[in-house]
Amino acid sequence: MVAFRENIVSFALGLDDYGAEVRWQDHGENPLVRLNAVLPDLGRLTIERAFIPGFHVLDIPDAVAPRWPEGTQDRAWGGRTLKVVPKGIDVADLLVEVSLNLDAVFSAKFAAEQERTGPRP
Question: Which of 32, 71, 101, 120 is exposed most, by the fewest CB atoms within 10 A?
């Protein structure tokens, strides 16, 4: 659980660069750590370790989602499709891919904005 928390905190620190609104739920030693973030123009991102023994639950916008590893399952909940990833999968590796995808999406968005409005003085 400690390594999971550290991975999620490291990832969350980088979300500020994208203007994300970040909220946490951490119930100490109880099996629940949840990162909730809202990314401008992309939507909600949730990473959770809880409730389903043996799995992590991830809700990552399709535009920045990683390649989902073998054993990932789709679960419908609250009108959304969540990814349920076996706990044996290194979430840190998935989050590195999500970070790279976020960089690409926001770089393209910034370039398009610069092209439309021209350089700032």
Answer: 120
* Each residue's pLDDT tens digit, 39-90: 888 888 888 765 566 778 888 888 899 999 999 999 887 777 889 888 888 8
Predicted model pTM: 0.73
- Return all residues near 42 (Cβ < 8 A) that are at least 6 apart: 61, 63, 64, 105
- What are the tokens at 60? 């990552």
Strand ranges inside the chain, DSSP E: 21-26, 33-39, 43-49, 55-59, 73-77, 80-86
- Give the CA angle between residues 67, 95, 70 to the nearest 5°: 35
Measured between alpha carbons, how far is 33 from 26 in angstroms, rounded to an integer?
5
